[in-house]
Amino acid sequence: MRPVILMNSKKIDLKELLKEKKKIALGGHVRPDGDCIGSVMGLYLYLKQEYPHIQTDVYLEKIPETFRLIKGTDEVRSEVNNNETPYDLFICLDCADPMRLGFSSSVFENAKETVCIDHHISNESFADLNYIVPDASSTSELVVTLLDEEKISKESAEALYMGIAHDTGVFRYSCTSPETMENAAKLMRKGINGNAIIEQTFYEKTYVQNQILGRALLESMLIMDRQCVVSVIRKSSMEFFHAEPSDLEGVVSILRQTKGVEVAIFLHELEPQKYKVSLRSKQYIDVSVIAKHFGGGGHIRAAGVTMTGSAHDVINNITEQIARQFEKLEEKSVIPQ
Ligand code: AMP
Ligand code: MN
Ligand code: MN
């Protein structure tokens, strides 16, 4: 059974929220991806322009090189200054739980008021005020709905458009709704170069990224009667190719494209006996439930978790959960036997 979650929470009135605030912080999840960076930076650029009297700081881990074309990314703080006085407000974006804030969780905890804007189904509304819409394609799309369309600058639109494009796999995944297209259209009308943003931040790969992708594909295996594809990238391979964790972005989505498979499982060895696991499904399996079962989270078709043990143990534990779901779906005749 899916745990009880808040499906649609009340929209946030930004103007009301920012009344009498002098100093606010924005933050997102560890290893920030396109949507995390897009939503945080899009909101940041909007707030700086519309509320210049408020000190607004952004806390995010180091921004990967590909995302540096987004304005303001050079102003991001990747360390906490212990002398900083508490913020009046911390707005947390695209982050399913407070631990996922990583280094900025102490800034969040010390803030006088907290807000969370997110679309992860696993989010348990951990802030004082929560705007969680699991049906939304991306946090960036949610941010668009909170802003005054007329006041969105071209630079803010670029960030938000990038976020939507990334979490929808360039308007391809099932999370893409008619509203997603309408919100993206609003951003396009700001005169952004959408093609260049998509090409440079989503499709373009460095030589190293292609090499490590090649390794992951070459060593992938079909398991569970060819219903799942699994691949493991070891620390030694990362060192051999001089690859960064962010170079693995997108590998699991390509594994999922394998014809006939329902689930793609990708393991990235963080340290001996510790793996970052990425899960993707096509049609039936709810991977968010599986990730949450092991302490992670995410969405129905895309989720992640960090697990300990050997790669063999991790894969066994995950496939056991997938098998259970398959059995239930067959019992209910959702999937023909
Ligand atoms: P990834 O496989 O890392 O691309 O993650 C897929 C989705 O699940 C993203 O939306 C992540 O934000 C989310 N996610 C990944 N890892 C975790 C985790 N440990 N806890 C909660 N959500 C996660
Ligand atoms: Mn994200
Ligand atoms: Mn997201």
UniProtKB/TrEMBL annotation:
The keyword Hydrolase applies. Gene3D superfamilies: 3.10.310.30, inorganic pyrophosphatase (n-terminal core). InterPro entries: DDH_dom, DHH_sf, DHHA1_dom, Oligoribo/pAp-PDE_c-di-AMP_PDE. Transmembrane segments: none annotated. Its EC number is 3.1.-.-. Keywords: Hydrolase. Pfam families: DHH, DHHA1. It comes from the Bacteria. Residues 240-325 form the DHHA1 domain. Residues 23-164 form the DDH domain. GO terms for molecular function: hydrolase activity; nucleic acid binding. The keyword Ligase does not apply. This is Bifunctional oligoribonuclease and PAP phosphatase nrnA.
